[in-house]
Amino acid sequence: MHRQTKATSISSKTKAEVYARDFRRCVLCGSIYAGPHCHFVRRSQGGLGIPENIWTGCQTCHEAFDSESTDGPLHNQMREYFRKLYPDWNEGKMKYRKDGPNAQ
């Protein structure tokens, strides 16, 4: 498996951790019909498959999130959510870097 594919994939351990962290509900609307499969920074943009970049979302909210601009209200709501959970959360660190996590 290519390094980037592995880094952006969501492991079953991460899925379970995020699902528990988010109380098995969509973070945005509270729906119980949700699965921990939503990247904040999209996988297609190198978004890592780590808890700090993954949130539990229902299909409707996931689609809405993916269709809005990165400065939209859902993205801002998720930024606040992640910052509450991870005080040192940094959106820039959620992307795969070919030369390692600190490469620019």
Features of this protein?
4 helices, globular, mainly alpha, 2 strands, 104 residues, two-stranded antiparallel sheet, single chain, 9% strand
Can you give a write-up of this model?
This protein has helices at residues 3-8, 12-21, 59-67, 73-85; strands at 35-39, 54-57. By secondary structure, the protein is mainly α.
Write the layout of secondary structure elements.
Blueprint: H1 3-8, H2 12-21, E1 35-39, E2 54-57, H3 59-67, H4 73-85
Antiparallel strand pairs: 1-2
Give a short overview:
The protein contains four helices and two strands; from the N terminus they run H-H-E-E-H-H. The protein has 104 residues and is mainly α.
Strand order, biggest sheet? 1-2
**Strand percent estimate:** 5-15%
Largest sheet: 2 strands, antiparallel
Beginning-to-end CA distance, first to last residue: 23 Å
Round the mean pLDDT to the nearest integer and report it.
Answer: 91
From the helix content, strand content and strand pairing, which structural class follows? mainly alpha
The gross shape turns out to be: globular
